[in-house]
Design goal:
Chain lengths: 243, 243, 243, 243, 243, 243
């Protein structure tokens, strides 16, 4: 089975890191294709970055469709373009925020999120509300690390994340922590060992949920509002999307 | 004062119609620039259309910034790219769904929405929940009209909308109806006269709210998560967005 | 157009102050009549004060109806008598708490309220819940100033409000602050300059929203539960309300 | 123990009927004083009626305080002036809507409300939301009976209420029905016998809850926002309220 | 009238203490039978303890039915087996958490809970959400006292509870405190005197509510989902439950 | 890896059927042990049945612990004893209602539930609210089939379920249907083929989620309220639970 793990930003090193994390947890028969759009922001730290990256996500799903993909993962914690991506395919599509929230509620009654920048906390809050998990989450915390610092300086970033996770453990009355950035995918084990609390990481969560859905033959419903988009003309640089 | 009314789809006739509706309600000193992106879908009838259109909205806000715009309106009922657009400017930005919901709660205790296609009803439901208006809305109804039929065949579309509005009036225990498509902007008066209920139309609502905010010098907060996006590199066809 | 700005308490100096603030933001063609009931509490700092003041609000709307009023503003942060007032007129009626909440959500994703006394915080909490804005508001704060101190000693009161607003800015992870008392209407600019955050003030917000609704010919719906009250007899000192 | 049952409207026959219902369920040592304000609407069928009646409720509580009252009941289904009344006394104060909702959740998992006029249904909806019972209530139904018809023509009114209750039983998937008007207090037993479902009636519910609170020495908290109102001057016809 | 007060744990001394508290507030004609199951945990401090204790609660209701019981109280703050118990009888059944929440909202607008162990706080949170009282409760606090310490060392436990209640009073902006354990039933008066805030205790609250329902002839609805369980076979050690 | 699938009722034929469904979707390395308690109800159709069955679930988890189990599934749609079971193990524990809800939200925006008896619909409603999925579910429907009829007369039961699913498809504006009974595990494919909508079945969903959690080494958090229960004495027929 083929899972396309889409890093919505265009930083190739992060895509590779995410791909390695994804492959490490994949089932024996699962092949991971880790990819990122050619076009888009090198990191996603704002609503604007997120909106632009959704185009790249859709492009990657369209590519995936031509290659016979069985499931998709959107590997950015804001789940950019999630519903749009679902419309484009019969395969299941998972966002990593969504995936992590789901699993966190299965192993704890309350969790906190540790994300990169406090300015993106609102994105997590909006997703929690929309998905229905707001009352399961005690607090959205930020380690105040720009996303690309996770690439450059793993050690320093790791320390700050661990410190914030420890504060969450001490103050938030929780049973688990959700990591709030796809770029933290390779750090989950170290954080868990340092903090002593279950750490739910979205990339790995989403890969396994994608396998779950695919193995149950539960693809995105094509009945109702996630059916393929009505065919229509697109103009200008999006003309290739016409159908 | 200059308000840029952005039709997120690329159908110029709809843009013109929206511009006329906007200008008709604008204050004497307000100049309306009705515009649409060069690139994007000719109508917005899916999550996918919406995601693509958000790029055009951002482009139009960036253009607007170079021309000294005082406020922006996003004239599609899904409010595509709203938070991204807010990040790009100190000026206020209004979505037409948002605007209509706000005004509807000021003149009635409960309202219903009459939109185009039932498949896009979920978009309105998500916005109602996110904005906090879910309990004010009795029902999201669809007249089952493709968006561009509003351009081609006004009379037939009008009849179907009026019929659905009458059903809402008879069955929903409401005080007002919100029209769920920017392409209905020119029909509001006729619908109101035919139905006998206050009709809240988003384009006109948003223009007046934009004037309101601008006149109170209340621009988008640049403190917190709607501050300008962190400067960064964009790649590929989005390279021009780099800062 | 004529807007009747009703200060629900009977302190004439506050009414004048509110009237000046209202007129300052009004459109050229708008005439503000700032008024207060003859009968009622000199300030509103409890549920009891609020209940009594609602009678005066209704009286003022009835007076306004005889004078051909185009819109009404209820200039107390508890929005006393709002739904009753709406029943009495075809014109739009705006409360200042309501108005401020609406605008605050258009320029920020999260706001805090700074009100006078902590004992009235519950009134704001109830309104936030009823209107649907509870999740947009991080915190209801009190500067612990009796309402009439806003009349007597502006400077001292201003300092305490500014201090509380600064704490809100530093601690609450917000983009804007809503001022929680009609008596603060003249302080908004100074507070904004001192705090460095958008300050949403209800009197000015409500005046502009009243203009917005009136210009769109959106009056209070007379279909459903805001229709004119069923005619009936009133007894005793309320006999004049019989119809 | 002395319970003052306040009928917020000024129809003496209804007050007497309510008083009889109250006395019938009262404990042996409980004395019921059924009373209504001198001034106010003869029935309560709108937000406006409700706002005016709140003054009379407060007057009656003030009278009650001079007579050494142990608990108060506000016998109108909108619970008018409830929080204001609580501020005026150390004794417990119960609204009949509130009381009925509480008891209904103790004997069933879901209930429906059958009230008089559909235009007042919104009042029940607002109370359900504010109190926290919205998800326990399947539906707010109206028998479309003007309140005073409950005085004039008991038989006809009874039939319409029973019919609506039967529809609730058949269609709403409920375990109990809440009667939505103080004027139905004497009809509860007949309705229950005719419908075959537990019928929760607010006057009797509130009297017993008032006894419950009083016997547990649980009066209205005077710590926090229900403390006695801050002393102040009232003007005009409300001058007698000054303290 | 006969009320069976069921202590769901098997510590007889606690049962007696609860019985004394119950009898002290009971009406003259009410006889309290305080009882506990033969089989079950000696204290309830986890979801597991709670699940096991629900069997004992059901057993005690079945016994009560054979003895002609008029109402039941489940005297553990998690309300274990509440809905199951309701199915087994036409009599009303009250949980003490439920009972305390109801009364607390009648005398204050916001309350806090002081319970024994922080690990059981989640049980209170779940009940608050399910019953609809989440927004009335500011905070769930724990005095960190194992339940049986309430039996062994009243004085020390009392001090810790009083300390936590004082913190609630000082920090939580509340009007009342709910005691979160049946084992605190005898301490309520002392705590109230020491803290200076209304203290709502569940055993006494539930007894009076049980009397209230019984006197109004409001038993558990046998229409709908609380009807007697469908008759069926039980196996093994539960064979005696077959019907 | 070893998954213990616990049928909480004591009907062995249903356990076998559930086991077969579970094994069919299990990964190659997964061994399914399908089991049921010796003691308990032969079917679960009430709150009472559910309460009793929770003891058996706990027993089965305790047995499983002695046999080195990697994950548990509770195969009854009310998820009886779920939190208690989680306390007893470091392994993940999944309920089938929970599992089905999670997956349904990943492939559709809105779903309906088709369960056996309408009297148990409230159990699903309570779970939806507690888990946070209430707004994702349009409607809880019942095919009005006693649980054991699923054993006796598959064909007739299947027809009724298919009919109800078709009504859901036609009337509910949904993208997927959740089957509301563990006894329907073997019918999912037939129902899907007959109805033409994705059908989410809980047993298979839970097995795959159990594998997911186990493969990610995400066991039930032993930090906080799901830690092992405090050791204590149990009396009577539960003495063997003492620790």
């Amino acid at each position: 089975m083929l899972i396309r793990v889409i890093n919505p930003n265009t930083t190739r090193s992060m895509t590779e890191k995410i791909g390695i994390s994804a492959q490490r947890v994949a089932a024996p028969g699962t092949r991971i294709v880790a990819t990122n759009p050619d076009s888009g922001p090198v990191s996603i730290e704002s609503h604007f970055d997120e909106a632009i990256s959704a185009v790249g996500v859709a492009d990657e799903v369209r590519k995936g469709e031509r290659e016979g993909t069985d499931a998709y993962v959107i590997a950015c914690f804001g789940d950019p373009g999630l519903l749009a991506a679902r419309e484009l395919t019969r395969a299941p599509v998972l966002g990593i925020a969504e995936a992590a929230f789901h699993l966190a509620t299965m192993i704890s009654t309350r969790f906190s999120i540790v994300t990169t920048l406090s300015r993106t906390g609102i994105i997590a809050e909006h997703l929690l509300q929309s998905y229905g998990f707001a009352h399961h989450c005690r607090r959205v915390r930020a380690a105040e690390i720009p996303v690309l610092d996770l690439e450059d300086d793993g050690a320093c970033a790791l320390n700050r994340i661990v410190d914030e996770c420890r504060r969450a453990k001490d103050e938030d009355n929780i049973g688990a922590i959700v990591l709030g950035c796809g770029g933290m995918a390779d750090l989950a084990d170290e954080i868990r060992d340092a903090v002593g609390l279950p750490i739910v990481e979205g990339v790995t969560a989403a890969v396994k949920l994608a396998e779950t859905l695919a193995s149950l033959k539960l693809g995105t419903s094509k009945f109702g509002d996630l059916a393929f988009p009505p065919p229509k003309r697109f103009t200008g640089r999006f003309e290739h999307l016409s159908s």
